[in-house]
Amino acid sequence: MRFAERMSLLGTETAFEVLVKARALEAKGRDVVHLEIGEPDFDTPRHIIEAGKEALDGGYTHYGPSAGLPELRAAIAQDISRSRHLRVTPEQVVVTPGAKPIMFYVILALAQAGDEVIYPNPGFPIYESVIRFVGATPVPIPLREERDFSLDVDELRRLVTPRTRLIIINTPQNPTGGVLPPQDLQAIAEIAVQHGIPVLADEIYSRMIYEGDFHSITAYDGMQELAIILDGFSKTYAMTGWRLGYGVMPEALAIHVARLMTNSNSCTASFVQRAGLAALSGPQGPVTDMMAEFQHRRDVFVAGLNTIPGMRCAMPRGAFYAFPNVSAISRSSQELADYLLQEGGVASLAGRDFGEYGEGYIRFSYANSLANLNKALERIADCVAKLGHK
Ligand code: PLP
Fold first, then answer.
1. DSSP assignment, residue 276?
2. Which helix (H) or strand (E) segment is 133 a member of?
3. Which residues fall within 8 angstroms of residue 132, CB to CB, at 6 or more apart?
4. How confident is the model at residue 389 (pLDDT cuts 50, 70, 90)?
5. d(CA 131, ligand 1 centre) in Å
6. Is 312 exposed, middle or buried (0-12, 13-18, 19+ CB in 10 A)?
7. CATH architecture under which domain 62-281 falls
8. Residue whose C-alpha is closest to residue 89's, from 66, 63, 67
9. When comparing pLDDT for 212 and 373, which is higher?
10. In sequence order, which residues have a C-beta less than 8 Å from that of residue 93 and are 6 or more positions away?
11. d(CA 387, ligand 1 centre) in Å
C-alpha cells in the first residue's frame, strides 16, 4: 500500500501512546499511577447520563443536522452569550464529536500551502500536527515559565507576516496550567484586528480556573468578526468518552465547518447531543464540586513536587496539569518520563511532546485521587534521587 505524502506530516498526541505502554506494564502485574491522560477521573454527573439514556429510549438514534440539533445550538449560543458577554446566534454554532474536530476543520478551512499559522509552544500537540498536515507552516510562539507561561506580545507582533492566516491561543492552557492575563488578550486582539487575522481561541478549560474570572479574547473590539471559540463538554462535565464539543464562529465560517462535518461525520450522535443539552440546562453543582476537588489536589500535588530537590513547579492557575521544570535533572524530558514509568510506575508526559519549548519540563495530570497523587509524589522523589540533579 502506498500512502499519500501528507500522512508523513501528521503528528500525534503521545498521551494515548503512554497510556498503552502503562497498560502493558499493568498487564505484567506492575502498579502504575496514571498521571498522563488529560481527563477528569470523575464520572459524568448522573442527570446527564439519565438524559442520554432517555434520549436513546426516546428515539434520538437517527441522523441529525450536520451543524448540530437546533435545540443544542440554541442552548450553546445562549450559554456562550452569557459566559462571554456577547450576542451569539445559533447559526454561529457548530456541534462536533468532541472539540478536537473544531481544531481540524478550522485549520483546514483557513490555511493552505504557503500560509503560516502561529500557535502556542509548549501547547496541545494537535495544533502543530494539523497545521503541517494542511501544508501550512507552523510558527511557534514560545510560552515561558518566567512570564507565567503567558506569551510575549512583542514577540507575537514580530512573528506576524503577510502570510499569517491564523493565530491559535489556549487559555487556561494545556500543558502548563497557565492563564493568559486580560491585558495580553487585549494586545493579541489588537494585533489580530490590525492585520485582520482570525484567532482560534481554545477555551476548552474555560470553566477550570482557580483564581479570578475567566477572560476570553472575544471580549475585545473587533474580535466578534475574527474569533473562533473552541469549547465543549469533555472536561467541564467529565464527558470525554461521549465525544461532544463545539465551535462558535462567524456565520460564514460556520457554513464551511458544517460542510466539513457533512463530508466526514455527517453529524454528532443525536442522543449524545441531548445529554449535552441536559448538561447545559441542568444543575451546575457537580462542576463546582469537581473544581473544588481539583484545587485541593493541585495544592497538595504542586507543594509536594516543590519539595523534591531538582524540581520546580509554578502554581497552575487553571486546567488540571502541573508542569514542573526538571532541567536540573541531567536527563532529557523524554528520558525522565520513561524512567518515571519504567522504574517508578508513574505515567507522565515529556514536555518535549508539547513542542520544542516544552523541553526541560514534565506534564503531570493531577486528575487522580489524593491517595494516588501522594503515592506518585513518593515514587517521583525516589526516582529523582536515584538520577541525581545539579
Ligand atoms: N484542546 C485542548 C487544549 C485539550 O487539552 C483537549 C483535550 O485534551 C482538547 C482541545 C480536545 O478536547 P475533546 O476531548 O473535547 O476533543
1. H
2. helix 125-133
3. 9, 10, 11, 138
4. confident
5. 16
6. middle
7. 3-Layer(aba) Sandwich (3.40)
8. 67
9. 373
10. 67, 68, 73, 76, 77, 80, 246, 247, 248, 254
11. 33
**2-44 confidence digits (pLDDT tens):** 999 999 999 988 888 899 999 999 999 999 999 998 888 899 9
Cα(99)–Cα(78) distance, integer angstroms: 18
Quick one: which atom of ligand 1 is closest to the CA of 38?
A: 8
Nearest to 354 by CA among 379, 341, 337: 337
Half-sphere exposure of residue 366: CA atoms within 13 angstroms, side-chain side = 32
Query: Is a pLDDT exceeding 90 seen at residue 388?
Result: no
Atom of ligand 1 nearest to the CA of 233: 15
Where do the domains of the chain lie?
A: 5-44+285-387, 62-281
Distance CA 81, CA 73 (A): 12
Mean pLDDT of 172-184: 97
Kindly state if the Cβ of 237 falls inside 6 Å of ligand 1.
no
Give the model confidence (pLDDT) of 203-248 as tens digits: 999 999 998 899 999 999 999 999 999 999 999 999 999 999 999 9
What pLDDT is attached to residue 152?
96
> Which segments within the chain are labelled E, that is strand?
33-34, 93-96, 116-121, 137-142, 164-170, 199-202, 227-232, 245-248, 321-322, 346-347, 349-350, 362-365
Q: What span, in angstroms and rounded, lies between the C-alpha atoms of 36 and 33?
A: 9
Segment holding 290, helix H or strand E: helix 285-306
Domains 5-44+285-387 and 62-281 share a fold: no
Torsion region of 11: left, alpha or beta (phi above 0 gives left; psi -120 to 50 gives alpha): beta
Atom of ligand 1 nearest to the CA of 232: 15
3-state secondary structure of 160: coil
For residue 330, which phi and psi values (nearest 5 degrees)? -80, 60
Euclidean distance between CA atoms 331 and 23, whole angstroms: 24
Which CATH architecture group holds 5-44+285-387? Alpha-Beta Complex (3.90)
pTM attached to this predicted model: 0.97
